[in-house]
Amino acid sequence: MSINLFFRQKLSSAVICHHVRRLILPVSPNLGQQRRSSIYEPDYLETGKPKIPQYNTLNIQLKGYDFAVLENYQKLVHKIAEGMDVEVEDGWAVPPQHLKVQRFKPESTIVDTEYTMTVYERNVQVIHLPSTVGSILFEVLQTALPEGVSMTVHEHKEEHEETRYIPDAELLELKSQLEELRGPNVKKK
Amino acid sequence: MSAVCLERKPVLSGELNEIERKFSRMLADIELENSHKSDHEVRYETETLQAELLKSKSLDLDIEQTLQQTAQDFEDAAVDEYNKFVFESRITEADKANDLQNLERKLDRHLLLLVQQKQWDQKIWALPQGLQKDGETMLQTAERVLREKCGDDLTVQFYGNAPCGVYKYKYPKMFVSREEEGPVGAKVFFFKAQYIAGYVDHNKLKLQEFKWLGREELMSSLSQEYYRNISQFLIDEE
Q: Where in the cell is it found (chain B) (predicted)?
């Protein structure tokens, strides 16, 4: 037990050492380096890296009109990914898009019928996906797609994170009022 | 050597059998019972209540309300429209004619491209394959082989850089070169791709030389060992 703790401490200090070295090097490569040999970097930092290249954080975006089917398919996606030993990080829903579709009578602008459709969305985030497993996973998910559901797979970016949050209308209003009160001539510090 | 496993994915969902139909109906009922009332249902209920009140107490009719379309009217109109709509049949003309070169066949199943290839002295049906040239990765070989055999019109999406299967075979003794170091056999690496659009170029492959087969028909056209190797990476269907 104590050997384990000792090893863990040694590991963390070695990692810190490595990070600190990265910070120091660009500034002054020769100051404070009295040793001729390089700093000890343990082997597992290189050998511990995965040998098969991995995808970046991926978002599997599922869109559909029937949210009972969609939610069940999200559950299935999660199960399939877990069954293939793929790390599923997160799964979330996004506020739906409301569409108004108008069908016109032929060659005129008179509205024949109007439909209000809502497109629901669910996302599943997957990390550390090896590229070999990835191709199999995408094919399996594609084959298992139910009717009315469409799937897109893309890399996770900041704007995807931003769309999850609902902007606070009160806060924005207060901020804009504050700006007005300050006046246009006040410089920002 | 690398080969291309080109599949057209199913366009329609498969027909449900008896058990599946019963289960899906049961799930729909459970979903209905568990869900909240939709706007339309709430409106329908309030309007039926109002109609009953009007009958029993004979209140003054509100002209505005009667001019609007009631929920019942809306439902009737919607049901009418649904009944008028004609669905396309699942069995296309290509199914009836059993046209093996047509991609419209078997819309609810996978179709795999098989090409007739010359192996030693006979012609056999196999997935399109070809030798790797110098300086090419296996995936580039697969893309080149597909373009050479089927033309540029075919739009295809390869699934990944890694192959999905291997098939090893030895050359028969008559065709092996006399020297000791010559190749004794070949390894074929399969790359999976999905069909997106386009047609096989008829100038490169005549009508008898290629066919799109469903899974059940594969066993009859391929040799047993080859079929066993291939079926390992093809997704199962009932």
A: Mitochondrion
Query: Are B160 and B62 found together in one domain?
Result: no
Q: How far off is chain B from A126, nearest CA to CA, in Å? A: 17
| Domain containing residue B46 | 18-84
> Among the three residues B84, B107, B130, which one is the final residue of a domain in this structure?
B84
User: What confidence category does residue A11 fall into, taking pLDDT thresholds of 50, 70 and 90?
Assistant: very low
- B84 interaction partners in chain A (CB closer than 8 Å): none
Could B162 and A131 be called an inter-chain contact, meaning their C-beta atoms sit closer than 8 Å?
Answer: yes
Among chain A, residues having any CB pair with chain B shorter than 8 Å are 68, 113, 131-132, 134-136, 138-140, 142-143, 146-147
Q: Using a CB-CB distance cutoff of 8 angstroms, which residues of chain A are in contact with residue B192?
A: 135, 139
> Are B235 and A139 an interchain contact pair (Cβ–Cβ within 8 Å)?
yes
Cβ-proximal residues to A59 (8 Å cutoff; 6+ apart), any chain: A123, A124, A125, A126, A153, A154, A155, A156, A160
Q: Block means of pLDDT (10 residues each) for chain B, length 238 residues? A: 88 88 94 90 88 75 64 88 89 79 84 83 83 85 86 86 86 66 79 87 72 84 86 81
Are residue B126 and residue B9 in the same domain, yes or no?
yes
Alpha-carbon span A167 to A173, nearest angstrom: 11
Asked if residue B106 and residue B51 are part of one domain, the reply reads no
Q: Which ipTM score applies to this complex? A: 0.83
Do the domain assignments include residue B73? yes
How far is residue A76 from each of residues A79, A80, A86, A123, A180, measured CA to CA in Å?
5, 6, 14, 12, 51
One domain for residues B120 and B227: yes
The beta-carbon neighbor of A147 closest among B13, B162, B194 is: B13
Q: What is the pTM of this model?
A: 0.78
Q: What is the domain count for chain B?
A: 2
List CB contacts (< 8 A) between B164 and chain A. 135-136
Domain final residue pick, B84, B111, B133:
B84
Max CA-CA distance within chain B? Answer: 108
- Residue A95, pLDDT > 60, answer yes
Q: Which two tokens stand for residue A150?
A: 């469409």
Secondary structure of residue A179 in the 3-state scheme: helix
The larger pLDDT score, comparing residue A14 to residue B213, is at B213
**From the candidates A113, A139, A152, A153, which should be mutated to test the interface with B, based on the most B CB atoms within 10 A?**
A139
